UniProtKB/TrEMBL annotation:
InterPro entries for the chain: Acyl_CoA_acyltransferase, GNAT_dom, Ribosomal_N-acetyltransferase
SUPFAM superfamilies, sorted: Acyl-CoA N-acyltransferases (Nat)
Alphabetical keyword list: Acyltransferase, Transferase
Keyword Cytoplasm attributed: no
Domain of life: Bacteria
Protein name: GNAT family N-acetyltransferase
Plastid among keywords: no
Residues covered by the N-acetyltransferase domain: 16-185
EC nos: 2.3.-.-
Any one GO molecular-function label of the UniProt entry: acyltransferase activity
Enzyme class: transferase
């Protein structure tokens, strides 16, 4: 797409393809959300979007993803990749930044359909966007966070070389919850899987960078 080359950006790993979602991908993301993302007794997200009633959740997933794309600006962007595995979209991997041309720092977030968890796919998809950040976009640092009662997310961060960067306290479902901040320097990142990036150069201005 000449005026929105981001639709042609692809990250490919041995098991996954990451791409901006099209209409069919959005439908599949809504299906994965409705099938379940986490144990209902737990809430891994700061914004408890999975608490929505099932008759609202699917549409909200689609509206949210379209809104993220519509708000993209070079000075403040969020690249929400649909993650495809064996021909099926299984979750979302986000990479975002503010004033990236100056800060060279990215943050990440993700979710994965419940039945696709526990296979190392979460590590692989975050490794893909970190490779994009450090090798493709010349990032210097990457940050993330997770509630301290979310051991799976914290384990992914440890595997990829993040270090603790302090704690914060949030209100979650009306209760106190502690969040662990994490930071990764470029020198500490060793990508655990091969990642192929295609279609990046025409996208660079949209990330606030010169081709």
């Amino acid at each position: 797409m000449r005026h929105w080359p981001l639709f042609d950006l692809r990250l490919t790993t041995p098991r996954l393809e990451l791409r901006l979602p099209g209409p069919d991908d959005l439908d599949q993301l809504a299906d994965r959300a409705l099938e379940g993302v986490h144990d209902p007794e737990r809430m891994p997200f700061f914004v408890p979007w999975t608490d929505l009633p099932s008759d609202e959740l699917g549409g909200e997933v689609v509206r949210y993803q379209l809104g993220v794309m519509s708000r993209w600006r070079p000075e403040q962007w969020s690249c929400n990749f649909a993650v495809a595995h064996e021909g099926r979209v299984i979750g979302v991997q986000e990479l975002s930044a503010t004033d990236y041309a100056v800060t060279r720092e990215v943050s990440s977030g993700s979710w994965l359909g419940l039945r696709y968890q526990g296979r190392g796919l979460g590590t692989e998809m975050r490794a893909a966007v970190l490779h994009l950040a450090f090798a493709g976009l010349d990032a210097l640092t990457a940050v993330s966070d997770a509630f301290t009662d979310n051991p799976a997310s914290l384990a992914v961060s440890r595997k990829l070389g993040y270090r603790p960067d302090g704690l914060s306290v949030q209100a979650r479902r009306g209760e106190r919850a502690v969040q662990q901040r994490l930071r990764l320097d470029r020198a500490d990142f060793a990508c655990p899987v091969p990642v192929r990036i295609t279609g990046l150069e025409p996208c660079l201005p949209h990330f606030g960078l010169r081709p």
